Each structure stands twice: as C-alpha cells, then as structure tokens.
Amino acid sequence: MSEIAAPSMIKVIAFQLMDKEYAFPVHQVQGIEKLIHITRVPGTVPFIKGVINLRGVVTPIIDLRNRFNLPEKEYDEQTRIIIASCDDIEVGLVVDSANDVLDIPKSIIEPQPDVVGAVEAEYITGVAKLEKRLLILLNLERVFK
Amino acid sequence: MEVNQYLEVFIDESKEHLQAINENLLLLEKSPDDLAIVNEIFRSAHTLKGMSATMGYEDLANLTHKMENVLDAIRNHKLHVTAEILDVVFSSIDDLEAMVQDIAAGGAGKRDVTDIVDKLLKIENGETVHADSSAQTEAAPSVSPSSAVKYDEFEYTVIQQSKEQGFTCFEVEVELRADCVLKAARVFMVFEVLEKCGEVIKSTPSTEELESEQFDERFVVTLITQEAANDIESKVKKVSEVERVAVSEFVAQPLDTGEAAKEVAAASAPAPAPTASVPKKAEKQEEPKPGKQAAVSNKTIRVNIERLDILMNLFEELVIDRGRLEQISGELNNPELNETVERMSRISGDLQTIILNMRMVPVETVFNRFPRMVRQLARDLNKKINLEIIGAETELDRTVIDEIGDPLVHLIRNAIDHGIEMPEERRAKGKREEGTVKLKAYHSGNHVFIEIEDDGAGINKHKVLDKALAKGVVTEEQAASMTDNQIYELILASGFSTADTISDISGRGVGLDVVKTTIESLGGSISIEAAEGAGSTFLIQLPLTLSIISVMLVEVEQEKYAIPLSSIIETAIVKKEDVFNAHTQQVIDFRGKIVPLVFLEKIFEVPKESQEDDFYSIVIVRKGDKMAGLVVDSFIGQQEVVLKSLGNYLSNVFAISGATILGDGQVALIVDCNALIK
C-alpha cells in the first residue's frame, strides 16, 4: 500500500511531555517557536503561564505539564512552544520537545484504554499505536477550557 | 454570473446611496422646491435600482423603482413635497436599509413590502390620475396584443427606455424538436446565441424552469437588440434540434386612453413612447456626468480594517528592530552606518504617521445618521427641533468611531426628550418655538471633544439632588459638599433617571450611566454644564486613537507594568513612617487628602524576591474624584505604547486592560486603574 495521505490517514504533530508522546492534528498548528520571554498574567488559572509577543500579536501560553497535572520541569534547550489554534483562539502550548509530523491511519486509532496515566480522559480523543510508539491524541478544545 | 466578489462592493455602495438619499431627503424637507435635491435623490435611487437589479435582488430593485416613480413625479412638478410623502419615502428607505442589511447578513434581501409599495403607488397616482404621467403609464401593466408574455413594470420600463435609445425589442419564440434529449443544453445554446446579439431581459418560462427542463418544447425569450429580426432568426436556427423560430417585434402599447392615447395616435412611430418619459430620458443622460466627475476627484479604495491592523502589527515589529539597529550602530560608531540608520529611522517615522492616519475616519460617519433620527424623534414627540452639526470632518480612530455611536444616540435622545421643551412651553418662556441641538466635534491636543448642546430646560439641581438622595445614590453629607457640576453629573450615576414619566425615547432606567461607562472604557471622560432654563451641554473628551496611549512604565519586582498616563495625577516617594493605618487600610496623607494605598505586588501576586526598603514609590491615580496610590518598586519612565488586547482566550483578567510590546520585544501588561478604585 502506498503512503499517500488518503482520507483515511490523519496528519498529526507529535510532541513529548515527560515520557509520553502526545499528538493533535497538524491543521491546528500555526507554528512552532523556541522558548521566548513569557510575561506572567496575574489572576489567571495556574496553567496559563502568561503571554508572549508572537510577531506583534500578544498570544497566551498554556503549560501543558501543568495543565495535565504533571510535575513541573525547568525549561531547557528542547522546550518548544507549539502555537495552536482552535475556534478563533490562538494559544501557545509549552511542551518538553516537538518530535515530528506523522501520518497515521485512522483505523489504528483506538479509544483510550482504561488506565493510561495521570492525564484525565476528558482531553483525550484516542490512542494510536504506531510501531513502537504510542501516541495519545488530544482534543484541543477541551485542553483550552 | 459570479456575483459574490461584487457583493461586498454592492453592500457598501448601497449603504452609501441610502445614506445619501437620507441626507438629501432631509434637505428636501427644508427646501421642498429645490429640484436639484430631488435630482440628486433620484440619481442615487436610480443607481441603487440598477445595482440591485444587476445583482438579482428583485425586491430591492422593485421597491426602489416605485420610490423612483414618486420622485420622478416630484421632479416633473406633478407632485408637491409634503411631510406625508416624505414619511412614506423615509419608511421605504427604512425597508431598503433592512433589505440591504439582510443581504449583508447573508440573506436573500427579501422582505414583504406590499404595504409600502401600495402607499407609494397611491401617492404616485393620487395626483396624477388626470394628467398623463409617465408614472401612471409605467404603473399600468402592459400586455402586447401580439404576445402572451406578461411584463412587470420594471421590465416594461427597461423596454421603453431601450427603445428610446434606438434598440428594438423582439420576442423570440423557439420550439425545440419533440425528440430533443438535452433540452436544457439547447436552451443554453439558444441563450448564448441571443446574448451575443443583445440583451435578454426576460424568458417565459423563467430561466430556472428552463434549466430544470420544466417546459414543453416551446419557450419565449424577450431580447433587446439592434440587429434585424431575420438575422436573429437565422442565428438561432443554427442551434441544432431547434424545430421552429419565430421572431416578432414587441410593441409596447400603453393602456391608458384619453390624452395620452391621442398623443400616441398622433405619433406615427411603431413604438410610441409616452411623451412624459422623453424629458425624463433626456435628463437621465445628462445626470451621470456630475456624478462621474465627483467620483474622479475623490479616488478611494476600500481596505479591510483587519489588513490595516496587520500592517500596524508588522510595522511595530519593524520599530522594535529599528531600536536594535540604532543601538548597534551606536556601539559600532561607523559614520556610514549611522547615517543610513538615521535615514531609516526618519522614513519609518513618516511611515508610522501615515499608517496611523489611515485608520482615521471623520466623525461624519457617525454623525450622518443623526439628522434622520432627530427628525423622527421631533415628529414623534411633537417638538420642533433644529439639529446643527459642526466639525463633522474631525477625524477619529476607527476603533473609537465604532464605539461612540450608541452613547451619542443616547445623549441626543436625552437632549431631545428631556432637554428641549414642548413648543407651547418654550413660547411661554419667551424662547423660540424651535429648539436647537448642537452637535460639535473638534480636536484639542491629543484629544477629540464632542459637545452636545441644547437650549432646552437645563437641569434642575434640586430635583436631581432629591432624586439622588431618594435613590440612595448619595448621602446627605456628601450632597452638602457637592458643587453644581458634581450634582449634574449625578444623572450619569447608575440607577438614576430624572424623567417623571418613562417614555420609550429615553429614560428606560438604564440611561446615561451606560453612556458614562462606555466613554470611560474608551479612555475618555464626560462632563456636564447646565443652566436651569437655558439649556445644558454634555462634553465628551475622547482619545484621538485607542491604539496608541501614553503610559508610565513601572517595575514591580522583576515585572514591568504600564499605567495609563490619563489616570495618573502624579508620582511620589513616601517614607514608610508616613503611612498610616485607617482600620485595615493603609493610607497616606497626600496634599491634605487621605489616599488609600494599593500594593500592586499583592494585587498581582508578584513573586517576592528583593528586600523592602524604607521608602514606597507611589503612583497616584484617580477615577473620577476618587484617588488611590499604587505602590510599585520603581518608576521606569513615560512612553508611548501601542495598545493590544490579550485576545479572546484571556478576556476579563482582573485589573488588566490590555498589553503592549516594549522596545525589547517583551510584553508588558497595562494596569486598569478603574478596576483598582472602588
């Protein structure tokens, strides 16, 4: 079978958080940025790290580790901000590292098994097993809420 | 035809034309005999009709056409302008506006207008029954004796006008072969041939029915052309599977008898045009010229405001880089580099001015809807009111313009409803019966002022005070120490309405406090001057632009915040021992006044690092008459910054009104002082 992205395939961006790989559809990605200065915004929920200047547009930043109740980690050289958009909202997501862009067949996406880890099920649309990798597919709309 | 790309232009232009009609109608009401104004209105209406017909909005075209007939009758001295006629024309404008709105909102522009059409027809016929009028001729549905095709008035007028311009109108009857398989395709080919010869104005059955093959073998196409009947016949016959083609000339015969018929009989031409429409056509040909000249002298293009915002954003990035370049060239100290960077700085400075100016719009765009509103209100309330507009050309930022409309409507309604007295009352007071409302806009410094002045009853101080006390807006003690202006401003407080009876014009209880809130949210302020019996003036002060504001940058621990200069009174450094405790609140004595302190690091939960020293750096800010001292760590300085929103995701952050990007590319938050003072 050829590797051409048929409608049965879905293109996702995969990124690392702790020891797990997460993914969401690539059409929701506006860009990937290296870490730049984040201005803290007081009086917001803890997972909103603040705002950055994204080429003249003030963009809010969500720390995904914090959002998923994972232990915090110092930002380093690998840390990336994935600019994602969903329903007219543009938000940057802080991740440990951005891995790659993959085509995955829709057929291998399975509903989340009962126990996957600390992440609560509400953000997860399914999991996909790809060779030796396990991708956890995210529902951005729920992540933003 | 692909019309979507023209839709935006159509909507914009329709709105402009409707506005022009509105304005001119108001002028016409003042000088009913000025035919130049009627011509002006007629021209707008005519263009609107043409545009909407082209775009396929039949209802719109139809109503405009009816309105045009009435205007035409006025123009030809068959009707006299009366308030009743204007009322009907105004309400048809309302309908037209509603249809355009509907189209803009993605609708089909359909609306039930039979009522208003009836009224227009009545006006049109009311005075023209006896005289032979073009209006009547047009209104009469005409059926050619030779044809079964029925034309509506609009099509009929088109046919007549084209005849006057030397075109002939043919009815082309085409019969397809009974065994024809793809009827719709043949129809399409026939249409293609005919459209090359001239203009197809109608087909029976309609094009939709033809396309879906809902017809027998026969259909009739009405064509306006300059070609001869034989040529058309032979051309259509070249389409295969066409059984028979019959081309007959359509003769438009007016149905009215009497004088008109006599004139028709006298004219031996085969296609007699009613005499009344001849001068009309002549005028029409002359009319477009001045319009075109005006268009040439004022060339504009429409640009989406979003694109300007993007341009602005990109430009800001450029400015930040310019700052870095200047710094680098200063360090390198290379004369050539310095010179180039200096030049670039100057050019980008000019560019900035231009970009900012592009966003400026004359307040006219807001003001021009008021004359109409005032007229309507005056009629509803049986008052006589003259609205004077001064300085409509004053320019304001687009963002301010968009917001200022509603507050102004509110204030004008208020002035007319509560300010201006009834004519009898005014006469009794020795004033002119006609009240005057003055709307004045002008620049002053970095602000634009808008004044709404009326020569009505003014504000009754005692009545306001009594009411304020009764409603609990102020206490007796506060009331005793208030100045006149402070008392007047009470009417802007929430939960206040002075009208004895609640009318639907204003005084619904939500009233003027909304105005005040809106204006303050725009970074402006409103004040009132009044003299009882002589009138009142509402003065609105607005920033020139919302996108650039002057701020004072301050530092709180490691974080930078911007405080709008408009709310800062002054800065001070106060020794710790000069801070008093009033119950739980820390206060200072500032020039004889007790000012409460607000610790920004506590409000904003700034991570604490440095040691406290013996002094507080304080920014004294105000909201109305109340003050507060914001305690910060250090002052950085004053700066002009570009205001940015935090976006949809982070709406409603407490005490933060927005953000800005500093010279080093970092984001600084702008403090909303109004939220910090209760």
Describe it for me?
Chain A is mainly β and 145 residues long. Chain A has one domain (9-144): Beta Barrel (OB fold (Dihydrolipoamide Acetyltransferase, E2P)). Chain A contains 2 helices and 11 strands, in the order βββββαββββββα. Chain A is globular and about 45 Å long. With 678 residues, chain B is of the alpha+beta class. Chain B folds into 5 domains: 4-139, Four Helix Bundle (Hemerythrin (Met), subunit A) (Up-down Bundle); 153-253, 2-Layer Sandwich (Alpha-Beta Plaits); 305-359; 362-543, Heat Shock Protein 90, CATH 3.30.565.10; 548-676, CheA-289, Domain 4 (OB fold (Dihydrolipoamide Acetyltransferase, E2P), Beta Barrel). Helices cover 46% and strands 23% of the residues of chain B. Mean pLDDT of chain B is 77; it is low at 127-147, 254-296 and 500-510. The chains are: A mainly beta (145), B alpha+beta (678). Chains A and B meet through β4, β5 and β7 of A and α14, β21 and β22 of B.
What features would you highlight for this structure?
heterodimer, A: 145 residues, OB fold (Dihydrolipoamide Acetyltransferase, E2P), 6-stranded mixed β-sheet, 5-stranded mixed β-sheet, 2 helices, 11 strands, B: 678 residues, alpha+beta, Four Helix Bundle (Hemerythrin (Met), subunit A), Alpha-Beta Plaits, CheW (chain A), CheW-lke_dom (chain A), CheW-like_dom_sf (chain A), Positive regulator of CheA protein activity (CheW) (chain A)
